């Protein structure tokens, strides 16, 4: 019963945030993202196509919350969402994203499309959340 209550409250909180959150314009430049080093790699099966050891690892190892991103602008949220794709080796057509990720020493673009089945449950949920606010 506790789990249901926590999940229900989280859903209500997210819905309220979606209704009341101000719509921000996307930045023209790719902004910096605050580092978040909280990860739990033990919970995730490592995919050999994913780059580990980045400031974005946590997006693949746990669910993020609205509270973590509520102060980010749309450009920052766009970078967070696309960092999941970048860690899987996506090559970006968008010039700003391509230049940003190519400036990261860990990034190795190898393909233009990443099959959806390659993302784990955390990545899929985090992409969905970030898409709502991008």
Descriptive tags:
134 residues; mainly alpha
Helices and strands, with pairings:
Elements: H1 2-20, H2 66-69, H3 74-87, H4 95-102, H5 121-133
Helix pairs in contact: 3-5
Question: How big is the Rg?
Answer: 15 Å
Largest sheet: none
Question: Beta fraction of the residues?
Answer: under 5%
Low-confidence stretches: 14-29
**Assembly state:** single chain
Secondary structure tally, helices: 5
Residues in helices, as a percent range: 40-55%
Short recap of the structure:
The protein is mainly alpha-helical.
Write up this protein.
The protein is mostly helical. The chain is 43% helix and 0% strand. The chain contains five helices and no strands. Helix 3 runs antiparallel to helix 5. It is globular.
């Amino acid at each position: 019963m506790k789990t249901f209550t926590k999940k229900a409250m989280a859903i209500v909180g997210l819905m309220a945030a979606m209704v009341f959150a101000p719509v921000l314009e996307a930045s023209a430049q790719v902004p910096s993202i605050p580092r978040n080093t909280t990860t739990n790699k033990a919970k995730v099966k490592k995919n050999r196509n994913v780059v580990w050891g980045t400031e974005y690892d946590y997006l693949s190892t746990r669910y993020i919350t609205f509270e973590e991103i509520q102060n980010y602008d749309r450009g920052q949220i766009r970078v967070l969402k696309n960092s999941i794709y970048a860690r899987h080796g996506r090559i970006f057509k968008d010039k700003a994203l391509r230049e940003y990720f190519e400036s990261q020493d860990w990034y190795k673009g190898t393909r233009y499309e990443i099959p959806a089945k390659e993302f784990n449950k955390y990545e899929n949920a985090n992409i969905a959340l970030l898409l709502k606010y991008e």
